[in-house]
Amino acid sequence: MFEKSAFVTIMHPFNREKLIESLSRQFGEKDVENMYQYLEGRKYLVVLDDLSSTTEWDAIKQHFPPTGIANRIIITTRKEDIAKHCSKRHKNIYNLKGLVYKNALDLFTQKIFGKITNLDEQYP
């Protein structure tokens, strides 16, 4: 299990300071500039959602100690070249397919109504 975890959606326009501040807050570290030392030697999980450029990753990665066996940084992006830039090990890159219409609609109604609902019957 991870000692510390954080999930952040990347804001656009990109703001490195706010991102690091959000990560530090989720880790429970008050000193934003000390995040690297705070994470060093700990098991941590970080999810960075919607990375849109290699420049963003290059600005962020210096704030994390090298990932070891017990640490993970998961990045979501819509661009394959960004994924390849972030992970030199291509076996760690997963290309997810979009949902088919029915599954997307079921997920939407589950989130909105708390159950899968047939919208055609509900709202003719």
TrEMBL record:
<protein>
    <recommendedName>
        <fullName>NB-ARC domain-containing protein</fullName>
    </recommendedName>
</protein>
<dbReference type="Pfam" id="PF00931">
    <property type="entry name" value="NB-ARC"/>
</dbReference>
<dbReference type="GO" id="GO:0043531">
    <property type="term" value="F:ADP binding"/>
</dbReference>
<feature type="domain" description="NB-ARC">
    <location>
        <begin position="30"/>
        <end position="114"/>
    </location>
</feature>
<dbReference type="InterPro" id="IPR027417">
    <property type="entry name" value="P-loop_NTPase"/>
</dbReference>
<dbReference type="InterPro" id="IPR002182">
    <property type="entry name" value="NB-ARC"/>
</dbReference>
